Amino acid sequence: MHGTNNTSLLFVRPVNTSFHAWVSENPAVYDALLTAWSIVMLLLCILGIASNTILLLVMARSKRLRVGTGFLIFHLVLTGLVMCLIHYPIHIFLVYGSNYWFKVPDVCYIYYFLVVTKYTNAWFEAWLGINRFFAAILPSYYPALTTRRFSILMVTSSWLVSAITMLPFCWKRLGLFTLSVVGQCVLRSTSTGGIAVSTVVEKY
Questions:
Q1: Does any domain span residue 16?
Q2: Could you tell me which of 156, 122, 172 has the C-alpha nearest to residue 7?
Q3: Each residue of 129-179: pLDDT tens digit?
Q4: What's the structural domain count of the chain?
Q5: CATH number (domain holding residue 143)
Q6: Whole-model pTM over 0.85
Q7: 20 in a structural domain
Protein backbone atom coordinates (compact mmCIF):
# COMPACT_ATOMS: atom_id res chain seq x y z
CA MET A 1 0.00 0.00 0.00
CA HIS A 2 1.50 3.32 -1.04
CA GLY A 3 2.91 5.35 1.85
CA THR A 4 2.87 2.47 4.33
CA ASN A 5 5.56 0.36 5.92
CA ASN A 6 5.31 -2.84 3.90
CA THR A 7 7.19 -5.72 5.48
CA SER A 8 6.82 -8.23 2.67
CA LEU A 9 7.83 -8.39 -0.96
CA LEU A 10 4.83 -7.43 -3.08
CA PHE A 11 3.95 -7.51 -6.72
CA VAL A 12 2.92 -3.86 -6.78
CA ARG A 13 0.44 -2.50 -9.28
CA PRO A 14 1.98 -0.17 -11.85
CA VAL A 15 2.60 3.40 -10.71
CA ASN A 16 2.17 6.54 -12.78
CA THR A 17 5.12 6.42 -15.19
CA SER A 18 4.99 6.10 -18.95
CA PHE A 19 5.82 2.39 -18.96
CA HIS A 20 3.72 1.54 -15.92
CA ALA A 21 0.85 3.63 -17.23
CA TRP A 22 1.01 1.61 -20.43
CA VAL A 23 0.95 -1.63 -18.45
CA SER A 24 -2.00 -0.47 -16.35
CA GLU A 25 -3.92 0.30 -19.54
CA ASN A 26 -3.26 -3.22 -20.85
CA PRO A 27 -4.80 -5.80 -18.48
CA ALA A 28 -3.39 -8.65 -20.55
CA VAL A 29 0.15 -7.39 -19.94
CA TYR A 30 -0.49 -6.98 -16.22
CA ASP A 31 -1.94 -10.49 -16.05
CA ALA A 32 1.08 -11.91 -17.86
CA LEU A 33 3.51 -10.13 -15.51
CA LEU A 34 1.58 -11.26 -12.45
CA THR A 35 1.54 -14.85 -13.69
CA ALA A 36 5.26 -14.76 -14.49
CA TRP A 37 6.03 -13.30 -11.06
CA SER A 38 3.96 -16.03 -9.37
CA ILE A 39 5.74 -18.79 -11.30
CA VAL A 40 9.20 -17.40 -10.50
CA MET A 41 8.31 -17.06 -6.82
CA LEU A 42 6.99 -20.63 -6.70
CA LEU A 43 10.15 -21.93 -8.35
CA LEU A 44 12.25 -20.07 -5.78
CA CYS A 45 10.13 -21.59 -3.00
CA ILE A 46 10.72 -25.09 -4.40
CA LEU A 47 14.44 -24.40 -4.62
CA GLY A 48 14.44 -23.07 -1.05
CA ILE A 49 12.51 -26.07 0.26
CA ALA A 50 14.88 -28.50 -1.42
CA SER A 51 18.11 -26.79 -0.31
CA ASN A 52 16.97 -26.17 3.28
CA THR A 53 15.66 -29.73 3.60
CA ILE A 54 19.02 -31.13 2.44
CA LEU A 55 20.84 -28.94 4.97
CA LEU A 56 18.55 -30.05 7.80
CA LEU A 57 19.02 -33.72 6.90
CA VAL A 58 22.81 -33.32 6.86
CA MET A 59 22.76 -31.55 10.23
CA ALA A 60 20.36 -34.10 11.70
CA ARG A 61 22.84 -36.90 10.93
CA SER A 62 25.68 -35.21 12.82
CA LYS A 63 25.43 -34.25 16.48
CA ARG A 64 28.51 -32.05 16.08
CA LEU A 65 26.61 -29.86 13.62
CA ARG A 66 23.76 -29.32 16.10
CA VAL A 67 25.74 -27.97 19.05
CA GLY A 68 27.28 -24.56 19.68
CA THR A 69 26.98 -22.37 16.61
CA GLY A 70 25.43 -25.30 14.76
CA PHE A 71 22.39 -25.11 17.08
CA LEU A 72 21.73 -21.55 15.92
CA ILE A 73 22.38 -22.41 12.27
CA PHE A 74 19.98 -25.36 12.54
CA HIS A 75 17.16 -23.07 13.67
CA LEU A 76 18.08 -20.48 11.04
CA VAL A 77 17.74 -23.12 8.32
CA LEU A 78 14.53 -24.40 9.93
CA THR A 79 12.84 -20.99 9.84
CA GLY A 80 14.07 -20.57 6.27
CA LEU A 81 12.34 -23.83 5.39
CA VAL A 82 9.13 -22.72 7.10
CA MET A 83 9.17 -19.47 5.15
CA CYS A 84 9.66 -21.27 1.83
CA LEU A 85 7.10 -23.93 2.72
CA ILE A 86 4.38 -21.72 4.24
CA HIS A 87 5.13 -17.98 4.29
CA TYR A 88 5.90 -17.27 0.63
CA PRO A 89 3.36 -19.73 -0.85
CA ILE A 90 0.60 -18.04 1.19
CA HIS A 91 1.92 -14.67 0.02
CA ILE A 92 1.80 -15.78 -3.62
CA PHE A 93 -1.66 -17.32 -3.20
CA LEU A 94 -3.07 -14.14 -1.67
CA VAL A 95 -1.56 -11.81 -4.26
CA TYR A 96 -2.57 -13.93 -7.24
CA GLY A 97 -5.88 -15.14 -5.85
CA SER A 98 -7.08 -11.71 -4.73
CA ASN A 99 -6.73 -10.50 -8.32
CA TYR A 100 -8.97 -13.22 -9.75
CA TRP A 101 -10.66 -15.56 -7.26
CA PHE A 102 -11.59 -14.01 -3.92
CA LYS A 103 -11.53 -10.97 -1.66
CA VAL A 104 -9.23 -11.05 1.36
CA PRO A 105 -10.75 -9.73 4.65
CA ASP A 106 -9.79 -6.14 5.46
CA VAL A 107 -7.84 -7.21 8.54
CA CYS A 108 -5.84 -10.44 8.15
CA TYR A 109 -4.40 -11.69 11.44
CA ILE A 110 -2.82 -14.72 9.80
CA TYR A 111 -0.02 -12.37 8.77
CA TYR A 112 1.00 -12.10 12.44
CA PHE A 113 2.33 -15.66 12.41
CA LEU A 114 4.05 -15.17 9.07
CA VAL A 115 5.81 -11.94 10.04
CA VAL A 116 6.90 -13.37 13.42
CA THR A 117 8.63 -16.24 11.61
CA LYS A 118 10.22 -13.81 9.16
CA TYR A 119 11.52 -11.52 11.92
CA THR A 120 12.75 -14.47 13.98
CA ASN A 121 14.76 -15.62 10.98
CA ALA A 122 16.25 -12.12 10.75
CA TRP A 123 17.21 -12.19 14.43
CA PHE A 124 18.89 -15.57 13.97
CA GLU A 125 20.98 -13.98 11.22
CA ALA A 126 21.86 -11.10 13.56
CA TRP A 127 22.94 -13.50 16.32
CA LEU A 128 25.00 -15.45 13.81
CA GLY A 129 26.72 -12.22 12.77
CA ILE A 130 27.55 -11.47 16.41
CA ASN A 131 28.79 -15.02 16.81
CA ARG A 132 31.13 -14.66 13.83
CA PHE A 133 32.36 -11.28 15.09
CA PHE A 134 33.47 -12.76 18.40
CA ALA A 135 34.99 -15.78 16.66
CA ALA A 136 37.13 -13.53 14.43
CA ILE A 137 37.82 -10.47 16.61
CA LEU A 138 37.43 -11.60 20.23
CA PRO A 139 38.16 -15.34 20.18
CA SER A 140 38.81 -15.47 23.94
CA TYR A 141 35.10 -14.70 24.55
CA TYR A 142 33.84 -16.97 21.79
CA PRO A 143 33.45 -20.18 23.87
CA ALA A 144 30.88 -18.41 26.07
CA LEU A 145 28.69 -17.85 23.02
CA THR A 146 28.70 -21.51 22.04
CA THR A 147 27.45 -23.01 25.30
CA ARG A 148 24.15 -24.86 25.20
CA ARG A 149 22.56 -22.40 27.62
CA PHE A 150 23.51 -19.35 25.55
CA SER A 151 22.45 -21.04 22.31
CA ILE A 152 19.00 -21.74 23.77
CA LEU A 153 18.86 -18.13 24.99
CA MET A 154 19.58 -16.83 21.48
CA VAL A 155 16.88 -18.98 19.89
CA THR A 156 14.27 -18.30 22.59
CA SER A 157 14.89 -14.55 22.72
CA SER A 158 14.59 -14.30 18.93
CA TRP A 159 11.12 -15.87 18.98
CA LEU A 160 9.98 -13.87 22.02
CA VAL A 161 11.15 -10.49 20.73
CA SER A 162 9.46 -11.06 17.38
CA ALA A 163 6.22 -12.40 18.87
CA ILE A 164 5.81 -9.82 21.64
CA THR A 165 6.68 -6.73 19.61
CA MET A 166 4.14 -7.67 16.93
CA LEU A 167 1.25 -8.25 19.38
CA PRO A 168 0.20 -4.56 19.56
CA PHE A 169 -0.50 -4.66 15.83
CA CYS A 170 -3.11 -7.37 16.44
CA TRP A 171 -5.07 -4.87 18.56
CA LYS A 172 -4.43 -2.00 16.13
CA ARG A 173 -1.96 -0.33 18.45
CA LEU A 174 1.03 1.27 16.70
CA GLY A 175 -0.31 -0.18 13.44
CA LEU A 176 -2.33 -3.04 12.03
CA PHE A 177 -2.29 -6.00 9.67
CA THR A 178 -4.15 -4.75 6.62
CA LEU A 179 -4.22 -5.16 2.85
CA SER A 180 -1.97 -3.98 0.06
CA VAL A 181 -3.34 -2.65 -3.21
CA VAL A 182 -3.28 -6.21 -4.58
CA GLY A 183 -5.08 -7.72 -1.60
CA GLN A 184 -2.11 -9.24 0.19
CA CYS A 185 -1.72 -8.98 3.96
CA VAL A 186 0.87 -6.41 5.03
CA LEU A 187 2.04 -4.79 8.24
CA ARG A 188 1.04 -1.12 8.22
CA SER A 189 2.53 1.20 10.82
CA THR A 190 0.18 4.04 11.78
CA SER A 191 2.43 5.80 14.29
CA THR A 192 6.04 6.74 14.87
CA GLY A 193 6.24 4.01 17.50
CA GLY A 194 4.95 1.44 15.02
CA ILE A 195 7.51 2.46 12.42
CA ALA A 196 10.27 2.28 15.03
CA VAL A 197 9.20 -1.15 16.31
CA SER A 198 8.78 -2.74 12.89
CA THR A 199 12.02 -1.23 11.61
CA VAL A 200 14.11 -2.31 14.61
CA VAL A 201 12.64 -5.80 14.78
CA GLU A 202 13.02 -6.39 11.03
CA LYS A 203 16.41 -4.76 10.55
CA TYR A 204 17.87 -5.88 13.89
A1: no
A2: 122
A3: 998 898 888 888 888 888 888 888 999 999 998 888 888 887 777 777 776
A4: 1
A5: 1.20.1070.10
A6: no
A7: no
